[in-house]
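*** Residues and shapes ***
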Amino acid sequence: MLLDFHATFNLHRDVMPWVLAQGAPDNLAKCSRTLRIVNVEKNGNVLYTWKGSESVTKIGIYDPITNQNKMLYSIDSEVNVISCSVNTEKTLLALSYCNSSCEGAPSRLLSPVSKYLALLVEIKPVNDLKVLKAVDSIVRVQFLYPGEDKHLSSESHLLLFSDEKYIEQFHIDTENKDNKVVIKSSGQIRRERLLEDFVWAQWDMPGQRLFYIIPKDSSCVLHCIQFYPDENFKHVLEVALEISLANEGVSLINLGYDPPEERGRGKVTSSSLQVFTNQTGGLCLFYCKTPKKSQDITYTVAFLHKGCSKTFKIATTMRNISDYKLKRLSFINLDSYVAVYLPDHFFHLINTKYPDMMCYHLFLSGKYRSFCYIFLAEIIEWICENLSTCQTFDPIQEFIIAYLHRKLSSETMYLDKLLAYTSVPLWNMDIRGVSCTTDMIDMPVMKIIKCKGFWEKFHLELEFMKQSQQRFLYSSNMQRRDWCKLISQLFFFFTLLKVSQNSELNICYSATYTTTACRFFYLMHTDQSLEHRGHQFQQYPQKDTGEKRNSVYQRNILENAKKVLLNMNTSKSERVVPLVQEEDYLQKDLMGLMMVKLKDHLSQHLHHVGKNKIEKIVLDYFSKQLDLVCLILEVVWRKHMQDSGVLRFDTSGNPSEYFAFNIMCRISEAATLMSMPLPPGFQTLHLVLAMRCLPLGNFLHYIDIGALPLTEAFVVKLLKELDDREENEKLKYSIIIRLPENISERVHRLWDHAISNNFIAMKYVRKLLFRLNNKEVTRQSLTERSPLYINFLPLNYLIMMLSDVEDRALNPFEEDNIDATFLEEIALKRTSALLGLH
């Protein structure tokens, strides 16, 4: 969905018009048929060849920076150019070719006895040439390229590859003579043999690396030589492979071109093998072998930087898979992905950066052969419209995690190895016609210790895998475990609180913990009658259960949460979603706790990153989480909810509101599974939509199961906007009895109703009773203590208890504006109602 394939260079578009302008319009068919690419140098220059009139073979070069073509060399005979390369200064051209026929003299300049030749040509200007090789086996040539900051040198270095299983390096000295760059005529060109007895070699042009395989017993060993700008080279890698290439001919990758008439001659390769690297230190080997008596194609991907391999088996409709058909199998490097493509059969995308991700299996035909890039808002729209079709993963979770991973991991080195990149713990979805098996392989051995660039990153990958097999990613399971650990501790203390009210222990708990625990118990369908936030008790000594939550730690959590909210980028002035800026203690506690945990996680592994940088990474991580949730809502609102002022309680919801409500349900579910906080006002808006879109029974059920946590802002809005008609009274009562006590005590006074009065009186009585101690209270007769004598024992006992408390406290009802008469009246009405005396 994010792939955009387009040609940066097209041979017939960028070269063919220039070729025809050279004076060969009458040979259009021949030029078009013989025009082909033979090499692409490190700087992007493209070398190509074609056959013109009068039996001439020409070699040209295209510069992608200037978009200009230039003739490099012309051979006055029709030969098949196999490979060619030009040095950085464009003063020397090396080429190898095969004569079309050895009969007769193929050239008036050269009359070789051997079939294959390798030449070194002076091209500034064309002055002279030297024969490097004249043999009966195919040879290929490639100049080494220094670094970008390397000054122009008078010495060039050339690699020569032979099908006779050896590789040589030539050192060519040049000098300026009469405005011409010529090869120094000081005898034979210096050369050295780099290696021999190899069966496979691949030239990595961008990295200036040579990979090669040497057979050993029944297996093979992969080696790598790194060439450096100072003309030095080092053997950097060695790893054993569980494949056998001993009985096959030499195979060379990224080293020229086999003319059609030369294909298959001199080599009996029945396998396709290629190495790919990416910028983050990934090194993978792709291997495919022609099956003998099977219609299936099998290829193996060895993730050398991870110590594992995957073997894919694809069922095809081909009856006889020939070597030619297998050669049509292409491996295309897309940096973090490698595309495996067999025309008319399958197109796979393999994630080389994260091997545990699934293989993307695509069939391309017609208009679906190209992938187009789509913008962030369009991705959100696609997710919202296709939520019901995604059964194996949560697209909202994947979108949020993938965006954060891509955005943040590119800012700091090695951060991508620590942040989660998917919410799916295991990709186990079956793909029809494709099977996959995973195996462990030997880890590569690094031949050098101090290295930079790619090899430094590759070495880090190996160290991460060697140190431990544990996952280094910051996962939502880790967050949920810490969150539940805190709540379990609170459950223990609140249990003590309920069973020891008459004991000598004075129970205390933090005010913030109270709010957190109240909300948690509410969501878990447990006791909702916990004491509200703000009560102060003497401290109860805690047992150390792993991580003691003291006041300093709690204050740090709240400060972190405030920083996240202030760091959000979503502009309030441009926001169309009616999010209420409310105080949600649970979300702030969760936000701050997760920040602390992520900072600890990154500090443990990012030793090279300073404390302030880690602080910024963590701050951006959670603030961007909230921004993405707000952005999803903005896209939904702008497309479906044109009038945000319709969110009232007196009408039912429309289809657009049903759609928005469903999206918010999925966001809430995704956030819960990820232990991710939600932006302020999200839950209140969700409740308003739910009340408009759901029947009362369903709405209350959503509240009871914890899918719709009640908020103070929603209850205040409900009590203020709805009158006290019978149906509204029923709704208000249904909501109030479900409120956590820390909210109910603040909203009851907003509703002047008998139900609220009952709650106020009950709460205050419980508060007074809690003040009693175990000391004996001398009680006088009821007739002496109060003129309010009612022939009902429970009520008389209550009056007596309250009178005792009144005598022992100064202004006991002043803070709540409650008097004894009010309490007695409420108690009598409540008792009468329960006894059915009305």
Observations:
- The longest strand covers residues 166-177.
- The longest helix spans residues 611-640.
